[in-house]
Amino acid sequence: MAAETSMQTRREFLTACLRYPVAASLGAVAVLLAGRRGTGLPNNQTCRRHGICSGCGELDRCGLPQALSRKQAQRGK
User: Fold this and answer.
1) Of the candidates 55, 77, 52, 56, which has an alpha carbon nearest to the alpha carbon of residue 66?
2) What span, in angstroms and rounded, lies between the C-alpha atoms of 39 and 54?
3) Domain boundary assignment for the chain
């Protein structure tokens, strides 16, 4: 019976060795996705460049009226 107890402990150890890195990886992915979501302007709807869309790196993802107007004007050219 002693061998069975040590085998159970080994199994728990191996399970923990797999469980915690997987949980940490999922947590890291969640943090990355949450950070990525927070940078997009359509979710935040605040302009960081005071309405000046020229040269803005967020223009493609922006849903503010100034950006939509700018994108429409660029398509018309």
Assistant:
1) 52
2) 18
3) 1-39, 42-77
How do residues 30-73 score in pLDDT, each as one tens digit? 888 877 655 444 555 678 888 888 888 888 888 888 888 888 98
The answer, as to whether pTM is greater than 0.70, is: no
Asked whether the beta carbons of 36 and 30 are under 8 A apart, the reply is no
Please tell me what DSSP assigns to residue 46: -
Q: Which amino acid is at 28?
A: A
C-alpha–C-alpha distance, residues 59 and 36, integer Å: 16
Q: Residue 77: in which H helix or E strand, if any?
A: none
Angle, alpha carbons 21-23-27 (nearest 5°) = 115
DSSP state of 52: -
